Amino acid sequence: MSFCSIDQLIGQTRLVKLQRMAAHTNSTVLLKLEGDNPAGSVKDRPALNMIVQAEWRGTIKPGDRIIEATSGNTGIALAMAAAIKGYKMTLIMPDNATEERKSGMRAYGAELILVSKEQGMEGARDLALAMQADGKGIVLDQFNNPDNPAAHYASTGPEIWQQSQQQVTHFVSSMGTTGTIMGVSRYLKEQNPAIQIIGLQPAEGASIPGIRRWPEAYLPGFFDKSRVDQIMDITQDDALTAMRRLAREEGIFAGVSSGGAVHAAIKLAEQHDNAVIVAIICDRGDRYLSSGIY
């Protein structure tokens, strides 16, 4: 008898159609449900790949300690992957993250270090590198590690192409580390250069978990602006409104960045005839309940 292990369940997430929210258009909006991954988000894919590739190169070995700065989903995914592979895990994140995210990391056995909201992700990244310099562990560096977008080139992109029956015309993704959009863009453009890649960033003043407007000095090292055809600013209200409608009208319980992606996808559906628009639903809504957004 042959049985799978939990890491083999990462990927092959479902692609589902919006039933009501885009019904006033003649385009099709499809949602990639990444919350179905074992640790609950799209970050399961790069988290496992970064560890597997680091093992293959000999950078890490079981029993080592990994250090990573995270805003939440990558941390939970890395904590799961570290538990699977036998690594110790230290995660550094801003203290304004939801309790569900903090508890999820600890549940997988990770040690959690909090920096202030003011220090933010930039401060968390700086601290991770300082700890590595002090010999306290190894930083995988999701923001500059090419194994991050490579995971999406190898899995997310091909899945979208196949599941959309090669009909996808637009791909919409929130931009945090930008690993998802970089990897998927590369793959889809190789299949059909006409496919439009739309990246989302928060509008000025918006604070949307998982979407960043990076200062130039902290831009992810693998980000290539030429791979993104259009960048859309997403307001807090638009992301939250679409997120709540997604649950109430479509039965899809997702996080705030996913609401932003759906808002953008519907706008595109209104602007283009007979388009097939695929948007990434990064995670599940239960990760945000304590914040009161529902």
Automatic annotation (TrEMBL):
<dbReference type="GO" id="GO:0004124">
    <property type="term" value="F:cysteine synthase activity"/>
</dbReference>
<keyword id="KW-0198">Cysteine biosynthesis</keyword>
<comment type="similarity">
    <text>Belongs to the cysteine synthase/cystathionine beta-synthase family.</text>
</comment>
<dbReference type="InterPro" id="IPR005858">
    <property type="entry name" value="CysM"/>
</dbReference>
<protein>
    <recommendedName>
        <fullName>Cysteine synthase</fullName>
        <ecNumber>2.5.1.47</ecNumber>
    </recommendedName>
</protein>
<keyword id="KW-0808">Transferase</keyword>
<feature type="domain" description="Tryptophan synthase beta chain-like PALP">
    <location>
        <begin position="6"/>
        <end position="283"/>
    </location>
</feature>
<dbReference type="InterPro" id="IPR050214">
    <property type="entry name" value="Cys_Synth/Cystath_Beta-Synth"/>
</dbReference>
<keyword id="KW-0028">Amino-acid biosynthesis</keyword>
<feature type="modified residue" description="N6-(pyridoxal phosphate)lysine">
    <location>
        <position position="43"/>
    </location>
</feature>
<feature type="binding site">
    <location>
        <position position="257"/>
    </location>
    <ligand>
        <name>pyridoxal 5'-phosphate</name>
    </ligand>
</feature>
<keyword id="KW-0663">Pyridoxal phosphate</keyword>
<dbReference type="InterPro" id="IPR001926">
    <property type="entry name" value="TrpB-like_PALP"/>
</dbReference>
<dbReference type="InterPro" id="IPR001216">
    <property type="entry name" value="P-phosphate_BS"/>
</dbReference>
<feature type="binding site">
    <location>
        <position position="73"/>
    </location>
    <ligand>
        <name>pyridoxal 5'-phosphate</name>
    </ligand>
</feature>
<comment type="pathway">
    <text>Amino-acid biosynthesis; L-cysteine biosynthesis; L-cysteine from L-serine: step 2/2.</text>
</comment>
<feature type="binding site">
    <location>
        <begin position="176"/>
        <end position="180"/>
    </location>
    <ligand>
        <name>pyridoxal 5'-phosphate</name>
    </ligand>
</feature>
<dbReference type="GO" id="GO:0006535">
    <property type="term" value="P:cysteine biosynthetic process from serine"/>
</dbReference>
<dbReference type="Pfam" id="PF00291">
    <property type="entry name" value="PALP"/>
</dbReference>
<dbReference type="InterPro" id="IPR036052">
    <property type="entry name" value="TrpB-like_PALP_sf"/>
</dbReference>
<dbReference type="InterPro" id="IPR005856">
    <property type="entry name" value="Cys_synth"/>
</dbReference>
